[in-house]
Design goal:
This protein is α/β, with parallel strands linked by helices and 242 residues long. The protein contains 6 helices and 8 strands; from the N terminus they run E-H-E-H-E-H-E-E-H-E-H-H-E-E.
Length: 242
């Protein structure tokens, strides 16, 4: 099984502003260009659709080598997912579990205007710190979210598509490829989990806008012990920012 992690194009927001769950659009021209380029890359790697042109949803049985596309429903992700899907003759699906981490009250504020003591508290516990709750643009309550909570929901989503949760997981990966169109935070926690990276390594991974990162899940012949006879899956980073 191969998983292609795709980051949205450059968002239309001023530099230095905190945005996570904030639903900002991406540059339309850059999105269109990225969709064309990424569809070409996927097609060249055999990530084309099934013969009938249909996509596979989470609950569907694996269907040959058909590419499944699932994306964050955020406005900066949907047009890219739709563009890639249309070019490859498949259907993109959307899952709210692939939304970016919620920064609560920090959303839409300049990083320099956020209480420095809170930023320090976050730096001291990157995994479990929860930003204070705030009010979203629509007036709704917007709770903050920890990285641990982000990881839990993102991994649950990926597992629904048959992706093993970690290196050495004995879960059986589904046949066929999966493309996930999402955000940097989502991609980082997935890569950290799958590749067994320490927090200091995965939290600083540079993931460029409109690029593709490929991870291959292959049988791990070294698996043994109580699980002997069960094919474990090993995650191998194939491409970063392709």
């Amino acid at each position: 099984m191969r998983v292609f992690l795709i980051r949205h194009a450059r968002p239309l927001i001023e530099p230095g502003v905190c945005y996570g769950r904030l639903d900002v659009e991406a540059d339309a021209a850059e999105t269109q260009a990225a969709a064309r380029r990424l569809a070409g890359l996927l097609a060249a790697q055999g990530g084309a659709g099934s013969e009938d042109g249909g996509g596979c949803d989470v609950g569907d049985a694996a269907s040959g080598s058909a590419l499944r596309i699932v994306a964050s429903p955020a406005r900066r992700c949907r047009p890219l997912a739709d563009g890639v899907a249309a070019a490859l003759g498949v259907t993109a699906r959307y899952d709210e579990r692939l939304l970016e981490k919620s920064f609560g009250d920090w959303e839409g504020r300049r990083w320099n205007d956020i209480d420095a003591a809170l930023i320090d508290a976050w730096a001291a516990d990157l995994e479990h710190f929860v930003p204070p709750a705030g009010t979203g643009a629509d007036g709704d309550h917007q709770p903050g979210e920890s990285v641990a909570a982000l990881r839990a929901r993102v991994l649950a989503c990926a597992a629904g598509f048959g992706v093993p949760s970690a290196a050495g997981d004995s879960a059986t990966a589904k046949t066929g490829d999966l493309a996930i169109v999402s955000h940097a935070g989502v991609m980082r926690v997935l890569l950290g989990q799958w590749l067994g990276l320490p927090l200091a390594a995965w939290s600083t991974l540079k993931l460029d806008f409109g690029t593709l990162t490929r991870v291959d899940f292959v049988a791990d012949a070294t698996h043994g012990g109580a699980g002997a006879g069960v094919s474990a899956r090993k995650a191998v980073l194939h491409t970063l920012n392709g």
